[in-house]
Structures are given as C-alpha cells and as structure tokens.
Amino acid sequence: MDFIVNLRTFLAVARLGSFSAAAREAGTVPSVVSKRVSQLEHMCRAQLFERSTRGLELTAVGRTCQQKFSELLSEIEATIQSGPARNRLTEHLRIKCPTTMSIMHFSDILCDFQIAHPGVRLDLNLVDRSVNPIEEGYDIAIGALPTTYPQVQEIALCALPRKLVAAPSYFDNRPVPTHPRDLSQLDALVFRASGNTWALSGPAGEVAVEVNPVFTASDTRLLCHAAIRGLGVTLIAEPLTRDAFAAGDLIEVLPDWRVPELYLKAMVPERRMQSPAVRLLLDTLVAATQPLPPWDRA
Questions:
Q1: Which secondary-structure segment (H or E) carries 140?
Q2: What is the mean pLDDT of residues 267-273?
Q3: Whole-angstrom distance, CA of residue 269 vs CA of residue 28
Q4: pLDDT at 198
C-alpha cells in the first residue's frame, strides 16, 4: 500500500505544482510528501522533479512517469473495486467543469448521479480553462473551448449560444457600434480563457477584431455583473444574460451580427472509456443536455 500512496502523492505534486499544496490536499505536512516522492524516486532510480526559478517542475522522466503512473493507478483501483463490490458500481472519478456551468446547471446533474450511485466518489474541480485530461489526471473534462488533445475522446453535449451585450447606460455618452471594428474603441469585459480577439459573422463573412480589455475575469458571472454595472461590452454565454435582458439591465450589441456559438463537450482519455462509471456518467450528461440543454428546460 505504501507504493500506491507514493503514486498518489507523486501525481498530486505533479498536478498541483508544489509539495505544500499536495500536503494540504492530503491533510499532511510537506516533509511527509517529500519523503514519499523520494521513496518513489529511489524505486525508479531517477529524479522526478527539479526546482527552477519558475518553481517545481517535472523532469523528462517525471513527465513520462506521470502518464504511466496515472494509468497504472486507474487500473489498480478498477481491479480492487471489481472484487467484493462487483455488483455495485464503485469508482473514484475526477471531473473538471467550468465554474458557472457547475454552479448553475451541472451541480444538480452530478448530485443526482451521486444519489443514484453512492459507491462512486466524485472529485469535482471548477476550472475555467481548457485542460488536457490525460496530463492533469481527469477522467472527464467538461468544457466548451475548441481545443483538442491526442488520445482524448470527445463526446458532444450541446450548443452554447453567446451574445455581445452591454448596459443601456453604457451608450449614454458614446455612439452605439454599427460594425465589429467599432468594438476596438469600446471598453471590453473579457473572459480570460477566450482571449482578446472577438469574432462575429455578418453578410460579408466573419470579422475578427482585437478588443481593448478594461476588465478581465475567469468567471463569466463576474463579466455579466460588470456589464450590468455599465463597465463595458462583454461576449458571454446567452443563458447567463436572460434575467438581465428581461429586467432591461442589458441590451444586445450589434444584433445584426452573429456570434459563433461554442459547443459544450466532455473530453475523456481513451483509456478511461472502458470504465463502467465513466460510461454511465457520460450517458447521464448526454441525457441531461440533449435534446434540450439544461438552461432551456422548464
């Protein structure tokens, strides 16, 4: 069991980037984490981490071991759980989901799944960026950014429409834009993971414009709140704006131009697609998002 504990510790340090963070997560002290990693390095006869000016980093051997050990640990857990509990679904799943999506929609979906399958342990991390589930140790990574990764299978969930919005008061003392190029002269409220280039489609095709960010955040609820307060123009998920539109707190900017919608998806390492718990949770996610997404259900 010490070997398994050492594997878990090494993977936690690799994921979190420090002995201290891994110690906090495990409820222990950094010296214990360091000792466990040293024992694993002794067994591997190689250094797995090295310190640099940028902090703690994996060596080349460490990067190889991270993927191999993650796969090995998953196989060990699956073997153990298929023993006396073979008639009950038991597994530990690490899931990544965007913050706003989790709080507004996916929390109920995951809670219902947990109630139906109490033997499955869910470890949910709220991360507002695209992640490679293999490198960061996730069984399922939910997101809407178009980034893809090798050896990762994508399961389509549902479309995520977006809108360009601002408070009516924002245009009290400035002209209302009539073309996407006008956006470069306005105050932009930017979602960090999407970047500072906004694309819109019109009769002449797609136009991309570099905006001027005055407020950048990793949570779209903050951007929506900032827009309502009249701080600028933002490009965010349309379902998030519905209450503000109904109250007259937001209006659509450039309504004759279409904002390309994103597509919500679940990304799963190919090696984890055979897991019964992963497959069942994927089925649950698909059923909860198709044919209607959760924000369009009564």
A1: strand 140-143
A2: 91
A3: 30
A4: 95
Instruction: Identify whether the C-beta of residue 271 lies closer than 8 Å to the C-beta of residue 71.
Output: yes
What gap in Å lies between CA 15 and CA 75, rounded to an integer? 19
Q: How far is CA 85 from CA 80, 82, 119, 123, 145, in A?
A: 9, 6, 9, 20, 37
Q: What tokens does 295 get?
A: 């924000």
Buried/exposed 183-216: b ≥16 CB within 10 Å, e otherwise: beebbbbbbebbeeebebeeeeeeeebebebebe
Per the structure block, which two tokens stand in for 173? 């003392």
* Beta carbons of 146 and 262 less than 8 angstroms apart: yes
Is the pTM higher than 0.70? The answer reads no
Q: Which among 275, 271, 268 has a CA at the least distance from the CA of 78?
A: 275
Give per-residue pLDDT as tens, 70-89. Answer: 878 777 766 665 555 444 67
Lookup: tokens for 166 = 């601002």
For 161, the token pair is 């429409």
What does the block give as tokens for 55? 């902090």
What is the signed CA dihedral for 30, 95, 217, 158, rounded to 10 degrees? 170
Instruction: Say how far apart CA 221 and CA 16 lie, in whole Å.
Output: 26
Reported as a single tens digit per residue, the pLDDT across 271-290 is 898 888 999 999 999 998 98
Distance separating alpha carbons of residues 41 and 47, to the nearest angstrom: 6
Q: CA 84, CA 60: separation in Å to the nearest integer?
A: 39
* Residue with the two structure tokens 């408070």: 167
| pLDDT at residue 83 in the model | 55
Condensed to tens digits (0 to 9), the pLDDT of residues 141-152 reads 999 888 889 999
Closest CA to 107 of 90, 122, 128: 122
